[in-house]
Amino acid sequence: xxxxxxxxxxxxxxxTIGLYTVLYRENKFYRFVEHVFLGLASGWALVTLWxxxxxxxxxxxxxxxxxxxxxxxxxxxxxxxxxxxxxxMGYFVFSRKHNWLSRVPIGIILGLWSGQQxxxxxxxxxxxxxxxxxxxxxxxxxxxxxxxxxxxPENATPDQLTQVAAExxxxxxxxxxxxxxxxxxxxxxxxxxLSYFLFSFxxxxxxxxxxxxxxxxxxxxxxxxxxxxxxxxxxxxLIDRMYFIWIEFLKQGLLGG
Length: 257
Known about the structure:
By secondary structure, this protein is mainly alpha-helical. It contains 7 helices and no strands. Helix 1 (about 5-20) crosses helix 2 (about 30-65).
């Protein structure tokens, strides 16, 4: 390992230790490393803004591409130049006299964003609503568990591929007892959680109160699982940083030469 690589690893180790010193208490070393990280992240974000967004989706479409090596090229659409003054209007937010100009691009963005949210909402939540309508009664008792889908051999003939596809479709079309039980638990959890948010009227009746109580407990279980996965993610990051310090830097970098 060359000297430059060792120096780069050493800087990474110092930065890692500096960020973790906040676990002890707020200190100037942590503040210094934090500001360095924010500065580097801001510079990286500016470069990424141009290379991955503005250049590809605005500049290249405006000027087009030149034909070369069999590539027919793409003609430029100079109407994209009209986006430049609209974007520059956003910087008038720093002017007291012409501050109102900064609201023009904001209004355009909000208008376009609002119009797209209907489709975005349906694309996000439509499949979830469709998936919540699961069958709770089994349609096949040939197996308690869901059978494994067949796998076609490497040198399968077209007839074999057709048979494998037909068998897989038949398995997916049926609902097996364990799958039906899983769907029943899912549907009960969905209805119980929804019943917990019935705040428009007073909850009366033993069955409805039992549903709301079950919904509260199921929400607590779900939030606990989310919190547990968040903690495990933090431990994953910690393990990765400790591996970087003890293995990549100390063992392979310094001791490994």
